[in-house]
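Retro notes
What went well: the complex prediction finally ran end to end.
Inputs used:
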Amino acid sequence: MSRVFWCVGEKSNQPLWMEAFQVSVYSLEELCYLIRKKTNLVDLTLMRQDVLDFMEHALKLNVSQLRECVANGCSLSEYCRKLLDVGACMVSEEEWKKIRDILAENEEMTPFESRLRRADDRFAQKQYFAAFQAYGALATQTGDREQKALLYGRMAKAAFYLFQYRVASAFFEKSDSLSNDPDMKIGHFLCERYLMSRQEYIAYTTKSPEDYALSLRVEQIYEEAQKKAKAQADAALILPGEHSLIQEFREMME
Amino acid sequence: MEVVIGFDINEFGVQVSYAPAQENAPVKTLQLSGKGDGTVVEALICKRHEVNQWYYGMDALQKAKMGQGILIENLWRRFVNEQEVMIEKEQYDTALLCNLLLKRILRGALDKIRQEMQQEIAVRMLVITAEPFPNDCMERVERMLDGLEVDRKQIYLQTHEECLFAYLVHQPQRMLGYETGVMDLSNEMLVSYRTTMNHRARPVTVCIERQEVPHLVRKKHYPSISEHDRALTALDEQFCDYAADFVNGRLVTTIYLVGSGFDGDWCQESLKVLCRNRKVYAGNNLYSKGAVYGGLSKIAPSETDAGYLFLGRGMLKDNIGIMVASGGKEEYCPLLDAGLNWYDAKNEITLMLERADEITLLITPVNGGAAYEEQIALGALDQREDGTYRIRLFLQMQSETTLAVTVTDEGFGEIFPPSGQQVEKTIELEGGR
């Protein structure tokens, strides 16, 4: 039988939008959950005054220790530890060690890295459109060539998963132009392969003889993808409850 | 000086007792009437012919005898059973007539109390008990109580059982045995009450069983003296049998004979049975005094009040709670307490669950039975990560012994939106059986 716990504080009718986690929070339990499960996204925005005010006024919690902690310039991990204690959140020593190590790393993140991580989290959650927008927003704000190349590459992947091959192709090309990354070129060619007919694609690749090796690689990837898709399609045709008759026919033939 | 006043109303009379609003204050019964011992005011009103002038009590009786007005008898029973009475071809609301009677009696009582206490008084609480109890006409009760000299928030209604409980627990300890009996002939029909106390429980639980005895009737009026004597002789015989049955095989240590129906010496044979190995007391102010004790226990509860718990008709006889983890330990969280009227017994609480497998309620009968657990399986709720279950637990009694429990999934904010799923379970409690 599982245990029953008190709710700590109240549940707010007006949630607080947590930029770091890209989610609205109604209670302290949710905040503690996010610290534990999305530690890679925890950053210094968790220590802001609006978060403390929300906890004090909306959740009716005593946050004097947290305020003192912030006023004394405590670290992110010290702050989170206190927050988990306020939430009566039972964290094992082992789990806390992992959390603490990640938080220490997070504290060194630049704002760009922090936002990039959030965008990556959206991608990992298969929120491809939101990820695309987040990468795009970062790309417009950064002047760094390497960062832009990285971001265009990720935008291309997000667009690819949204089956937007033309958009993906454009961003793969942009990324490649800034970074000369062969993977970006492969991505670009693959998108064109999906968009063009055989003849069109052959005509397209003959324009760049230096890319023949890459084209071959793209073809291999394309064939592997086709085989996988076919295998999955074949597997999908087998109805539940039915089995192959190979063994029966073998016996009959014997 | 603040006072608590108790009114005991039946279809024949109204009795008033009072006490200063202090712990352990002595309770006195007022003499407001010139008849008998003076403590019962006739529950009569009389409307003067063709004039909107009203008399009450003995005045009403005299005016009616003199042919100056129309007498309305059995006013209280009429109020409980009927909404209106016809007087001189006009319909009168019985609630308003009772209101009139109570206003007059209350006025008289307040004057008398000021006289006795020789100082100004303020009514801290007015407790009204009545037989029959107006269970099914509470709306009309509100009309009846409207406009009395006491603020409505300071007026409480109590059943005779609640008054009996309050009275008994304020008697000397030596009189509080295992069982106490009350034989009530305030009205024409005998009503008996059996009080049992469980001294093994803390607080001591007190149950009161009420029984109407329709074949034991002493009328207020008989056509003739011979008829009266014949009836009372027969009544003594019948009451003797009833009393023998009442005490047979039981540890009844005290009997109270209540009401004017026991006036006179008609029940000699019955008394022989009742007085064997127990104390018997006669009186007619048990309920009005009990009403005052009941009021005092609300505003100035004594140690005695805390030591006893009344489990009357319609009251919850089990404590219901749940174990909640807090600071590494488990602590008991009460959800519904014994002693609540079942129709008032409901509670709602929001809790966090580790997993959605089951929750366990702890049920403790207060009548001496063993505590037990009731599991509520939560398999019907969508399964998700541990520690992300915020549930709303709602408990409501559907009868004296039936508990309805509803568990609602409140979700986990935006992370796991509320599904609105519910699990319901009905539990038959053992304590009330």
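What we learned: Chain B has nine helices and 25 strands.
What to try next: split runs per interface for comparison.
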